[in-house]
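Journal club prep, shared notes

We agreed each person brings one worked example of a sequence with its structure written out as tokens. Mine is DUF317 domain-containing protein. I'm keeping it raw so we can talk through how to read the token line rather than staring at a rendered picture. Sequence first:
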Amino acid sequence: MPLSERQLVSFADKHAWQVPFDTGPRHVAGPGDARHVTHGLAAAGWNTASDPLGPEIELRSPDLRHILQFEPQSATGAWWRLQAAPSDDGPGWYAEFGELAPAEILAAVTDALVTAPPPPADPWIPVTSGGWERDSESTARSPDSMCRIVQRQLSQFEGRPSWHIETSEPGHGEFSGPRIWHAYFDELTPTHLVSSFLTALVDPRPLQRGMYERTGHHSAGQKPSALRPQEVIDAHTERVISLRAHSRSARQQQANTTAPATKTNSTRPAVRR
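Then the structure, token by token:
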């Protein structure tokens, strides 16, 4: 089901009455509005495969290879699951995200999934340039030490690692406190998706949250934003319009590529009237 005007109006109605507060750092900003994720995919042509009256959401890509599941009643802590089936384009892969993972950071992954991937880049580049401390070649942590990134190799003989991101309560010494949220990318997840997630995670710019809206931790800093509610709405609308246009262009290009060539016969006599 494509993204409708009514759904965009519903998003606008909610945010028009919220006073936006700049909230950061991002890893403790709270979940935000899940429609940052679902509206982007719907605009890109993903279809709903779940009960529209149920609490769970399942979206499938037009080619049925990719599935996003949102399960707010999950007992595992993984409220978001994103997976791809094996195909001629590449192997299957899996990623998951916890309840309090900010929707805008997850949306960076899904936006990257539905647009043309950039050239491969080292996912550590945005982390180090964002001022996060590298504990080793395979780990890094946020300046407040509450969020940790770990790159895990299955074995010394395996080529690609998996990625584990975890935000936790402050602990004692080397030990972290209780987990707030997590993200996981298996070893077959395309590198540009991991890079998109980490780039959005370490971005120093605050996220916008409404007054009294849930944050990930009481340490999150908040101050009235210079953005007006309408600017928050306009940014969301412009983003989904851009994703919709990109998706339509990609589908048209694919159709032109796969369409059989039409043969013409220049020697065919003209029809007399």
